[in-house]
Known about the structure:
- Helix content is 48%, strand content 12%.
- The protein is an alpha/beta fold.
- The protein is flat and about 110 Å long.
- The termini are far apart.
Amino acid sequence: MNDSNRTDPSDNPDFDPDRPSAQQTRAQTAPENVANRNALGSEPGWERATLEKLAFAALNEQKATRRWKTFVRLSWLAFFVFLVWFAMHRSTATSVSAPHTAVVEIKGEIADGADASAEFVNAALRAAFEDEGAKAVVLLINSPGGSPVQAGMMNDEIVRLKAKHKKPVYAVVGETCASAAYYVAVSADRIFVDKASIVGSIGVLMDGFGFTGLMDKLGVERRLMTAGENKGFLDPFSPQTDKQRVYAQAMLDQIHQQFITVVKAGRGKRLKEAPEMFSGLFWTGQQAIELGLADQLGSLDYVAREIVKTDEIIDYTRRENVAERLAKKFGAAIGDGAIRTLKTVPAIR
């Protein structure tokens, strides 16, 4: 390299011959940094202090998590306590002193635990009859039927309340009033229908399935042990004997005769009995009037306005509120659903 290309540091006006160069500075400070790190690392107990800090941090985090879980659980407990209190203190209906037509709706399947159960309907009926402002009680029915036991309890309660409070009862049929629903309707003083309503189906059935033939084809053996020769009666995986079939038919015939007796007692001389009337057939509203199963055409508004002579209509129907639905969803409904799933005995309708 040519010396003429070199730059003389003394030519730089900022040059200070007493100031060390950058390389010298790094060389001097490097040992000092190493010494400082060694001094820190050699401080007695630093590992223990660090571990203690980590342990205390983890412990505080666990405490915070436990406090949060406790808060959430207490919140849910308070919520469910409120649901139970609200459900228990909810009044079924509000007493109304002004003259009005009381309505109790029977909608959907008639069954224990359903909206159209004897528990709910009878409670609503009692509230309606006991209200002094109710001039008459209307059963607003739209149901294909269901349990004859639930229907029988409703029918008996209506007959009892009519005799006690001396108030008329009218049944107004919507789309359908069949089977157990008609069992309830005949307790009314008069039955009003639409000309296209479905009415009747005075009969009883018990349904189920038998899988014995399929099990034989698949080579599946049913191992059912019972104490009592008829304890496995109606088991879908066991063959049904002629004796059991006769017994079941006799039971259905007895319930059917109870149904017929209730219909005749409720309708009386208005019935124009025909061979098919109690065979399980159903008819239109117009045909039901001709057979004496119903009285005349009419809607709820018509009955309130023309029969009861008051346009004011008060609904006494007992329905589950939001609180009860939530309580059932998170509580007893789970176990009830499991029990229903395991049931194999056919229902009588």
